Structure formats: structure tokens, C-alpha cells
Amino acid sequence: FAPNLKIIKMSGIRTFTMLKPDAVEKGHVGAILEQIASAGFRIVAMKLTQMTQTDAETFYAVHKERPFFGELVEYMTRGPIVAAILEKENAVEDFRTLIGATNPEDAAEGTIRKLYAASIGENAVHGSDSDENAQIEGAFHFAGREMF
Ligand code: UDP
């Protein structure tokens, strides 16, 4: 029995997101979820959760040598996040378009980061950058039985 097999086979139509602590603190969860749903994404899994220091260090391990790593871990652990798996054709790319550039100053008008992000660090939302990472990140936060 391998519940995650389903995800591997469906690669290409799922992505993983987090509404980060700043978005939750500012009360933007409802508006952001509305924008995500209006763009055609279906929620496959979702929860309010808080990352531990080890969680954040593991999730962002690829950035561990970067100068912003310490601040990133502190930010991502300071309060609850909304973690979700989303489904749509071309999910990873379309979701990256919907959220906009990492730095809100560079993000296109109307994107989630343009609307809700304060800075390149506190940028409101995460979106996986590949099908492989979408699968890894979704499995990091959700058990197979939490995916619908
Ligand atoms: N980040 C930061 N400073 C930077 C670049 C990134 O604090 O100069 C943070 C920011 O929260 C970003 C996360 O680290 O979302 C991951 O960075 P990445 O380059 O993977 O950007 P993303 O894929 O989230 O757009």
C-alpha cells in the first residue's frame, strides 16, 4: 500500500503552497484563497499549522548557505501558516504566475505577492518551483490520507 504513488502519477497537475506567517497575521487568508480558487485551482489538502525550527531548516535546506537563511527560518516559524496542495492543469507554472516574483517590487500587477507581500523576505506565499518539489513539499506537510 503506497498512498503517495497517486501523486507521482499525477505529476504536472499538482502544486504545493503555504500562506506564510505574515499573510495569516494580517488576515489575508480568505482573500488569497479566493484568488487561488478564482484562478481555477482545486484544494486537494489544506491545514493551519506551525513549522518548527527543524521543519523550516529542512524545508528550506537548499538555502542554508544563503545570508538570509536565519531570518527566513525565524520568519517561517513565528506563527501559523496555511499549507495546501492544489490541483489544476499546469499547476506549478500557473501558480508561480499567480503569485508573482519573489520580490514584490518585481511582481506583476494583480499577483498575490504584489497585492499582499511586504518585502522579498516576507512575501506572503510559497509556490513550488517544479513538479518534483511539489511532490516532496506536499508529502512533507501531508500524509496520504489527508489528500483528497
Ligand atoms: N528570500 C529572502 N531573501 C532573498 C530571497 C529569498 O528572504 O533574497 C526568502 C523568501 O521568503 C523566498 C524564500 O526565501 O520566498 C525562498 O526563496 P526562493 O528564491 O526559493 O524564492 P521563491 O521560490 O519563494 O519565489
Automatic annotation (TrEMBL):
It holds the Pfam family NDK. SUPFAM superfamilies: Nucleoside diphosphate kinase, NDK (SSF54919). ATP binds at residues 20, 68, 96, 102, 113, 123. Residues 14-146 form the Nucleoside diphosphate kinase-like domain. One of its GO terms (biological process) is UTP biosynthetic process. GO terms for molecular function: ATP binding; metal ion binding; nucleoside diphosphate kinase activity. Transmembrane segments: none annotated. It catalyses: a 2'-deoxyribonucleoside 5'-diphosphate + ATP = a 2'-deoxyribonucleoside 5'-triphosphate + ADP; a ribonucleoside 5'-diphosphate + ATP = a ribonucleoside 5'-triphosphate + ADP. Keywords: ATP-binding, Cytoplasm, Kinase, Magnesium, Metal-binding, Nucleotide metabolism, Nucleotide-binding, Phosphoprotein, Transferase. One of its GO terms (cellular component) is cytoplasm. It is found in: Cytoplasm. The active site is at 126 (pros-phosphohistidine intermediate). Its cofactor is Mg(2+). Its main location: cytoplasm. Its EC number is 2.7.4.6. NCBIfam families: PRK00668.1 (NF001908), PRK14545.1 (NF011116). Belongs to the NDK family. Major role in the synthesis of nucleoside triphosphates other than ATP. The ATP gamma phosphate is transferred to the NDP beta phosphate via a ping-pong mechanism, using a phosphorylated active-site intermediate. This is Nucleoside diphosphate kinase. It comes from Croceibacter atlanticus (strain ATCC BAA-628 / JCM 21780 / CIP 108009 / IAM 15332 / KCTC 12090 / HTCC2559). The lineage of its organism: Bacteria, Pseudomonadati, Bacteroidota, Flavobacteriia, Flavobacteriales.
